[in-house]
Design goal:
Blueprint lengths: L6 H7 L10 H8 L5 H13 L8 H26 L1 H7 L14 H19 L2 H18 L11 H23 L5 H21 L4 H7 L4 H5 L1 H25 L3 H23 L1 H27 L4
Helix pairs in contact: 3-4, 3-8, 3-14, 4-6, 4-7, 4-8, 6-7, 7-8, 8-9, 9-12, 9-14, 12-13, 12-14, 13-14
Length: about 300
């Protein structure tokens, strides 16, 4: 199948592309389903941490999972691609918007429609889920859209992603089950794990250091250097888990604390290889160390919910 011509090339040759409705597969590509897993995992941690049985809550759980994944997270991807369309036209011209597969202002209207639908679903699931949804949507626009465009900061961008992808999704899962503000221990743990995700997002920035330098994005690998940024990322992830362990011990949730201590020890064993060449080994550590980190989240959630 012939790929559509780049809109920029059409403009240069005087050819005006016809505006057409985008194909469903191109809209799905815009929403990036691969990015939905982290917030859905955090949402399920919230469900587990609530201490409520799943029976009788299946519809809210399904709707809440859709809210955390395709509706809020997916919509944030559409927002980001719309406001990055000019840069993507240079660096990644085959993406849905710069390639013309999602033509005209369709990308913007998809982002707007997604925000409205997400708000409606959040409102239907209760006041606290609605509040979390509004915060998540505002954060998605502030992350990508001017004048805020927080993604250009290596400090604020990853912090916002961590607090929304993990924290708000966890909050939503707990609120869906109880229809109330989650308990204080749940709030403490979800905030700590969200702050640790700042380190994970910093590791994700290693793959785009050259592009960030060229486009003026001040990611931490650009600002601090790759090795220093890797050290900071490992320290943030470890410190968050150490504090979670301390709280769990204080609350008498010893089994959860031991499980998290074990996965943290495994992360410490993996970190020297990452630090020996962060640019090379970040994908490997994301598959190993980061996986251990999120397994610890579930262990904490199980303890908080009284499941062990």
């Amino acid at each position: 199948m012939t790929q559509p011509a780049n809109p920029a090339e059409m403009q240069a040759t005087g050819t005006v592309p016809a505006i057409h409705s985008p194909a469903l597969r191109d809209v799905l590509e815009l929403l990036k389903p691969i990015t939905w897993f982290p917030p859905i995992w955090a949402f399920m941690c919230g469900v587990v941490s609530s201490g409520q049985p799943a029976s009788g809550h299946w519809l809210p759980i399904v709707l809440g999972g859709m809210l955390a994944g395709p509706l809020v997270c997916g919509n944030s991807q559409a927002i980001n691609d719309w406001f990055d369309r000019h840069v993507d036209a240079i660096n990644e011209p085959n993406r849905p918007i710069p390639s013309g597969r999602i033509p005209g202002r369709w990308g913007f209207w998809i982002a707007c429609a997604g925000s409205v639908i997400a708000f409606a679903v959040g409102a239907a699931l209760g006041i606290w889920v609605m509040v979390a949804t509004v915060v998540g949507l505002l954060s998605a626009w502030a992350y990508s859209a001017p004048p805020f465009r927080l993604k250009v900061s290596g400090w604020w961008g990853p912090l916002l992603v961590g607090l929304t992808y993990e924290g708000l999704s966890w909050f939503t899962g707990a609120a869906v089950m109880t229809s109330t503000l989650p308990a204080t221990p749940v709030l403490i743990v979800l905030v700590l794990y969200s702050l640790g995700v700042h380190g994970i997002m910093t590791l994700n920035d290693f793959k785009a250091v050259e592009g960030d330098i060229q486009t003026g994005v001040r990611s931490l690998p650009v600002v601090l250097g790759v090795r220093n940024a890797a050290l900071l990322a490992c320290g943030e992830m470890a410190l968050a888990q150490v504090i979670v362990i301390a709280f769990l011990v204080q609350w008498g949730l010893t089994l959860s604390a031991v499980i998290i201590a074990l996965v943290l020890a495994a992360q410490f064993a993996l970190m020297p290889r990452l630090l020996s060449d962060p640019a090379r080994y970040t994908p490997w550590y994301s598959a190993t160390g980061v996986s251990l980190y999120v397994l610890g989240m579930l262990a904490a959630a199980g303890g908080l919910g009284g499941h062990w």
